[in-house]
Amino acid sequence: MELTVEDARERSRFEVSVDGNLAGFSAYHLIDDGVLALPHVEVDPAYEGRGVGSALVRESLDTIRARELRIVPICPFVQAFLERHPEYADLVHQG
User: What is the CATH number of the domain that holds 65?
Assistant: First the structure.
């Protein structure tokens, strides 16, 4: 299974593809200078339970970190991911 995560800026979301097929997305929007809200993650039911959502969030957060941005994790899936992966806690906006 080949996973690819890309920032689809024109749609304000990160998209994950599995073997070339769109499998899910993580929506975002700018809420302040340098701060992105992450309100929703969605994975096609055909790919659930295979780590696709976690890979999507991980790659999204890595891209956000590389761009020196911060996040407000609104989505419960993102919140749970952050609880399991404290190495991303520095990305959470403290404002």
Answer: 3.40.630.30
Confidence of residue 95 (pLDDT cuts 50, 70, 90): confident
pTM exceeding the 0.90 threshold for the entire prediction? yes
In b/e form, how buried is each residue of 53-84, taking b as 16+ CB within 10 angstroms? bbbbbebbbeebeeeebbbbbebebbeebbee
**Length of the chain (residues):** 95
Query: Which tokens belong to 56?
Result: 């999507």
The mean per-residue pLDDT over the stretch 59-86 comes to: 98
User: CA-CA distance, 73 to 57, in Å (whole number)?
Assistant: 11
Domain ranges, residue 82:
3-91
